[in-house]
Amino acid sequence: MSLEKFMNEAISPWMKEEGPDSDIVMSSRIRLARNFEDIPFPIIANKDELEEILAMMKNNFQQKSFKNYHDLEFVKMIDLKTIEKRVLVEKHLISPHLAEKSDLGAVLISENEQVSIMVNEEDHLRVQLYFPGFQLEQALEHAFEMDDWLEEKIDFAFDENRGYLTSCPTNVGTGLRASVMMHLPALAITQKINRMIPAINQLGLVVRGIYGEGSEALGNIFQISNQVTLGRSENDIINDLKSVVQKLIEQERKARQMLGDQRAVQLEDRIFRSYGVLEHSRIIESKETAKCLSDVRLGIDMGYITNVSRTILNELMILTQPGFLQQYAKESLSPQDRDVLRASLIRERLNLENSY
Asked: Where is the Phosphagen kinase C-terminal domain (predicted)?
């Protein structure tokens, strides 16, 4: 396996699979924050200490496999070009924060890209594990097993009263951040999502955009996750999140049914207008692309569009991001050049799909 594989394939292998409720829940993620026992947190550690972490992770885990997660590839941020780092962010393999730490950060990525272990981000380790669809409990089980596997080589910073110690106080305790990525177009179209977000926040959960904290909910894709870990067990966190997500799934299905019953012509017109834009545009910006892809995905899920697969939409959502477009072109592109290439790639991909 090589870095080139991560750069050139828009969709991660695990994303080609479908899980429970995958028409609404795109993915489930478990992230564990962990720190080495006797080394200061990255925010105050010196260069030698952070390099010690990098060496330890590379020597012990490079090209190692665990369960179905084979051949972990160790990638240092300093070895990547700016565009390459952006691609890894767009594929959710690293965070924007890690991408900015170009000198002393790294990531271990499994061959199927279902596991990534960020090194020297806000904490020494941020272990991420993804599952398709609504599979929080399965993801948590695998994350626990991977945590045990790492602990065979690492002594983590842990306090009997406080739990796992982390750079950010909100992660102290379990160090667990559970999240789901949801496509909620009907709730957005009916504007019900605007009333739901404050209520969700009051339950100790947070609603963010597709790339996490500070990002916009492009394409009606929302990330729902827990905010606090201290004083909560892992099962408590998962159960609270599951309860809210199940309610959102129920409300999204009701909103889709209502749109189909009461505004069918308007909905169908919206869907096929967006499909036409994607199929025929010569220039298209990223925000318009996300909106159109969301409409077309809704059309697929509701049976209006039958000649395009949901997987193609997942692929295009990543393929049309600025970093991936420039990686594809093998050069830096101006915003207008990206808009032209984006439109061309979408037309090419849809035509290929329709030719089967």
From this structure: 24-255
